[in-house]
Design a protein that fits this description.
It contains 15 helices and 14 strands. It starts with 8 loop residues before the first strand and ends with a strand. The protein is α/β, with parallel strands linked by helices. The strands form 4 sheets. An 8-stranded parallel sheet has the order 6-13-12-11-10-9-8-7. The radius of gyration is 20 Å and the shape is globular. It has one domain: TIM Barrel, CATH 3.20.20. It binds flavin mononucleotide and benzoyl-formic acid (173).
Length: 379
Amino acid sequence: MNQQEGLLSVETDRKEIHFPLSFEEWEQKAAGMMQPGGYGYACSGAGKGETGRRNEEAFGKWAIVPRMLSDVSDGDMSVTLFGRTYKTPFLLAPIGMQKLAHPEGELASVKAASNLNVPFILSTVASHSIEEVAAAAPTGSKWFQLYWSNNEEISFSMVERAEKAGYEAIVVTVDTVRTGFRETDIRSEFSPLSKGLGKANYVSDPAFMKALKSQDDDAIVASILENIQTLSLHWRHIAKLKERTNLPILLKGILHPEDVQTALEYGVDGIIVSNHGGRQLDGVIGALDALPSIAEAVQKRIPVLFDSGIRRGTDVVKALALGADAVLIGRPFLYGLAAHGQQGVEKVIEGFTRETEISLSLSGIANLSQIGRLKMVRA
Ligand SMILES: Cc1cc2nc3c(=O)[nH]c(=O)nc-3n(C[C@H](O)[C@H](O)[C@H](O)COP(=O)(O)O)c2cc1C
Ligand SMILES: O=C(O)C(=O)c1ccccc1
């Protein structure tokens, strides 16, 4: 037995399960569980992987200057987003086609998120539909991530379904007007959408089915591929969406402070600083390096969330100290799902919770409202 694995173990029916602890261990375990094409799709990035590496390296270039003698006995890391309070500053990032990782797909991860009071963001290209995911975790907080469809009636229809099913926010991903140049997938000829793994929200959508010319599998896949790439995506689409829903709208993939100004003018309710985990445009700024100027532009008027490179609790503290209100956990939970299903996702969230709590105490921060006391310097 690996000594570190032993630190996080539970007994079930006298059979002990040993869970990985660090991100690297989860990733290694997931690699052994997933099909090579699927794992390659999940772990790799666009181009030569420059941005993917930069995302993780960015954390090492910032150092925390902790505060002492601060009485951190009343530790509280709760956060309030759009009127709902969560005990931890985490969300699960929208990750498409989770059946690639585990047969229970999104149903396992939404249950884990719901059990631990973490909002779950369902992808447009999920393996389970908006309604199935809502039924699996009726009381958990759920948000819906929208890939704008070329046929916008489909977008509005999905948003309406999400609203009806009790989802609490719409996340419009703006960095994916087309898929990035992903060499790993080109080489392995891996296309999960073509396999039909991301069709659940489409085939259950009346507007999509109405527009479909033929109902055979190839036509469905072709129509999804056609709809998902909206090169014309523009602020005017956000204005239209605003007219169609009362739910808060967040933009995921903002990196430039001037886009924040425009977002505020369009009445956007939240920003997610992200470069899609280095999967879209290679060569872009590390997400953490973009965060301070975005937070500066937002001036606390709307929530700023963050993802891309969060691997452990100290990363969470750094992102919060640099201006994020909460962070999205991406690949770490996907690997938890691949390795141990729902329980794996729970273990990953618990690991983040534990390390973040310890790190905040040792930084001299009892309550997240005091995070501004923490100085960050270039390491
Ligand atoms: C396999 C995979 C699928 C993803 N699918 C989506 C998606 O459907 N919609 C979306 O907005 N982002 C998607 N993302 C991006 C994540 O939401 C998030 O931005 C990214 O994983 C953050 O990087 P990290 O996981 O390296 O921390 C996906 C990421 C991965 C790894
Ligand atoms: O793979 C991804 O990162 C992703 O977001 C995506 C984009 C288009 C289709 C399927 C998934």
